[in-house]
Task: inverse folding
């Protein structure tokens, strides 16, 4: 069978299956429940012996169409969508971890994921935070109880890049689940399957949706992990081949029991957004590089953190792994320039907390998204009090460069 390119494959994925009335977009199925002519058929669907929909919390045709697109983007085996990116990460804990289990997580993390690990620590799951840019730190933290290693591709907001390839080898040797949050790169820039990831997280809210008009998240099973060696699979879900055990348990234990299901309406918005992911990423990555280079060359800027700059500690790693360097960077102003005043002088950069939007969004990190964790943990994560995070949009390059430069003039 011919394999198509990234965008072709997403655009035409709905037509690989029968699509209602020849509709070019998968219709929005708002039905809560799904009926069967034969009550016996309903029972076989309930028993997992036949594929089908039963109740909207566990699955919906519009959501399935998006899951199919995500699986294609990640060259994966299967995907499950959730109401938000955090719900997808939370599902890992709900479905796959139990009291006494140990997780090794990168200490350079999206703030809410950091908060989630603190929460589950209170529920008897032990979490160690390590500098995942160095595989030795990850290896040193493993214990016989370690069930999962969790990293981000490019960490938000300081853009550290985990030692993705070597951590993949380590996890494979030890039979440990390797979970990679691919939100910052998106499957267009990087497929974590290429470094041996077992499960991939995507916050669909960000680049994949791209328009800031719907929340969503996903987990993708790459098919590389052998679930028969995972101690946490409940006997009930050990039916069919072991390749399906993990996702069967996630769908039942996380989606059914905890219920953070993606709505058909949101799935529709995210699916439309995903069609232009590649086009938008090309533009935002080029814009981010141009603005980061301008800022780095200006003496009023103390530091710029962007993997596309040769000064970045993991610049070569990024070059070898990623198609481009991402839409997000952060920077610190020299003393004497107030970060709030700077942000207020921007005309195009909008002070708001989302990222991966078509519009350029900026935020003073220590005072907002990383406020709750306190100064000490911020310092340990390398978050300066004046740090500004920038999520570059698809605006015209010259306009953005000019806006960020002009705002340096006090
Ligand atoms: C935003 C984000 C999430 C969470 O996604 P939501 O849809 O906002 O819950 C998770 N990981 C990363 C890296 C993110 O940027």
Result:
């Amino acid at each position: 069978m011919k394999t198509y390119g990234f965008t072709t494959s997403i655009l035409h994925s709905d037509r690989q299956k029968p699509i209602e009335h020849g509709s070019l977009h998968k219709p929005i199925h708002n039905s809560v429940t799904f009926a069967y002519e034969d009550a016996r058929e309903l029972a076989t669907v309930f028993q997992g012996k036949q594929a089908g929909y039963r109740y909207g919390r566990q699955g919906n045709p519009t959501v399935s169409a998006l899951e199919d697109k995500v699986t294609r983007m990640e060259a994966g085996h299967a995907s499950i969508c959730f109401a938000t990116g955090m719900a997808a990460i939370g599902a890992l804990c709900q479905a796959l971890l139990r009291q006494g289990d140990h997780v090794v997580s990168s200490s350079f993390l999206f703030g809410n994921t950091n908060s989630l690990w603190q929460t589950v620590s209170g529920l008897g799951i032990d979490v160690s935070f390590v500098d995942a840019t160095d595989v030795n730190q990850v290896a040193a933290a493993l214990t016989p109880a370690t069930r999962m290693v969790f990293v981000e591709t490019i960490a938000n907001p300081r853009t550290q890049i985990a030692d993705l390839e070597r951590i993949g080898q380590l996890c494979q040797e030890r039979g440990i689940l390797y979970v990679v949050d691919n939100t910052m790169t998106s499957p267009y820039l990087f497929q974590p399957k290429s470094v041996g990831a077992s499960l991939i997280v995507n916050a669909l809210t960000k680049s994949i949706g791209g328009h800031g008009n719907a929340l969503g998240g996903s987990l993708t099973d790459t098919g590389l992990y052998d679930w028969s060696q995972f101690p946490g699979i409940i006997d009930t879900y050990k039916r069919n081949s072991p390749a399906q055990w993990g996702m069967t348990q996630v769908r039942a234990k996380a989606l059914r029991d905890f219920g953070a299901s993606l709505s058909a309406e949101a799935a529709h918005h995210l699916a439309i957004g995903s069609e232009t992911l590649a086009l938008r990423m090309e533009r935002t990555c080029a814009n981010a590089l141009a603005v980061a280079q301008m800022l780095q060359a200006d003496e009023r800027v103390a530091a710029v953190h962007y993997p596309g700059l040769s000064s970045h500690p993991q610049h070569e790693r990024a070059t070898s792994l990623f198609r481009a360097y991402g839409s997000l960077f952060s920077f610190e102003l020299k003393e004497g320039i107030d970060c709030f005043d700077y942000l207020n002088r921007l005309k195009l950069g909008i002070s708001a907390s989302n990222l991966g939007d078509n519009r350029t969004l900026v935020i003073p990190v220590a005072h907002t998204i990383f406020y709750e964790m306190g100064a000490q943990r911020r310092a340990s994560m390398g978050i300066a009090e004046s740090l500004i995070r920038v999520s570059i949009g698809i605006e015209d390059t010259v306009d953005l460069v000019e806006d960020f430069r002009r705002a340096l003039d006090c």
